[in-house]
Automatic annotation (TrEMBL):
This is UDP-N-acetylmuramoylalanine--D-glutamate ligase. Pfam families: DUF1450. GO terms for molecular function: ligase activity. InterPro entries: DUF1450. It comes from Paenibacillus pectinilyticus. Keywords: Ligase.
Amino acid sequence: MRPIIEFCASNMHTGTDKVMKSLEENLDFDVVEYGCLGNCGQCYMEPYALVNGEIIAAESAESLHLLILEKIKEIEAMYDLLSE
């Protein structure tokens, strides 16, 4: 299972550029940057990304990074349960 993590280029002012670069180092993740993800209000207000299509948002880029990793662990655990 390769999680897809999507970032909005317009949200990089919140520090998500550093989060994206860090996640790109993990070859098990598919990290994609788009010009716009269509969540303009949220994009303006806080750091966010999509993980397998689900919005993950936080108060800071550092918190977002941790929440993304937690969500990936949660998804992996679900896949493990389903494959038993």
